[in-house]
Structure formats: structure tokens, C-alpha cells
Specification:
Helix content is 51%, strand content 14%. It is of the alpha+beta class. The chain has one domain (16-229). Keywords: Membrane, Transmembrane, Transmembrane helix.
Length: 235
Amino acid sequence: MKLIWKHLTSGLIYASSFKLIPMMVGTIIPFFWQLVNFYGTLPALLLIFGVFQILIVSIAAIIYPLLFLKLTFIEVYFIAVFFMVIAIVSWQIVNIFINRRASFKLIKLQLSSRTTFILLGLMLCNRLVSVPISSRTMFYDIHLKPKLAGQLKSKSKDQIITAISHDYQQLLNLTDDAVFFGCSPGSFKQLLIDAGLKESQFIIMETIIPKKHAQIFGLRRHFYFYVISTKDKDS
């Protein structure tokens, strides 16, 4: 009985649970980018819109009985939409804060989740990716800055290496317990090594995204799934 009481008092809700609001959005959005790579922008938009609709209806279904059926389901649906807007705004605020604080040269981060990390590994590479994590580990979707997408060839190799080294140091300054993942055409393995990263600090895997889909970036290369950890898996 004492244990039940603890679950209903101090264990009813933990402070970390509030992270779920922005992370809910961060769990979905990375799939949009990879669906774009797989199927194109329009199918990706329709699929992600459908996912958000399912989520909104599910939230409405939870809220509806809690209000003792005093509102119509349509009214509750709009309450759920409002909640989703708050979640999206909070996710964007977190992303803006992180990226402004870090002042990256090449990349931008988007808050995500372990669920997304695991599922993208399966979706893109048919693999469960193993990296060292703890209860505090945060997960971030990593992208090139929009102005640099497909434009890296305009920069010299030395410029790219210097920028990667700078951005990785900024990642370490930002957090000492995080996993960063993303997907892009072409392998950056040698550039990461030249920038000072050890091979035990990152994983690069070829994906099943068709090579020809990289033409949208002005390239014709295989897509690779990148995983970078602040922890050395060999340590």
C-alpha cells in the first residue's frame, strides 16, 4: 500500500516527462525528411499529415471522456489541435535555442527521440544501431544548414574539415551525453576522421534509398545514415 501511495504522489509525474511534449513532434518530423528522400515531397507531406491527424484524434479521444462529454468531439478535436500547435512551437523553440547557443558552421540540430533513432536505423538500413546511452542521453536529428544542402562542393576540403571540427567541438560543448543522427547522399567518413573524430565515435551505414534520388541535390551518390555519439563506444 505504501508503494502504491508513492506512485500516486512523488511518482505520479516526473519532471523529465515534460520533455515528451516537444519530443513528440521531434519523433515524427525526422521521418518526413527520409520519406522525402524515399518517395518525394508530396507523398511525404501526405503521410506525415496523416500521422499528425492520427495523433490529434488520439489526443482528442483521451480528452473527450475526461471532460465528461460536455463538449462535442469536434470541439475537443480543436482543443487537441491547439495542444499539437503548442507542441510544435515548443519543439521549434528548443531547436532555435540549441542552434543559436552552438553557432554551428555546417549543421543544424533538431530535437528527436530514441524511438526515431531506432526506427530510422531499421527503415533506412534494416539494422538496430547499438551506441552507448544512459538515462540522460538526448537524441538529435542532424542536418546540413539549408543554404548548404547540395552546395558543399563550392567549399574546399580544408574548409569542410575545419567546419566539421568546429561543429563537433560545439556538440561536445553543448552536451556530454547525446546521440546525433542523420542521412545524406555521399560518405563523409574520411572528412570526419580528418576533422579529428575517431572511428569509434561514429557509425556510417549505406541506406536503401535509391541512389538516383540524390539527383535532387545535384549529386548521384548513395545515401548514408550517420550516427555520431559524444561517448566513445570503445571506452
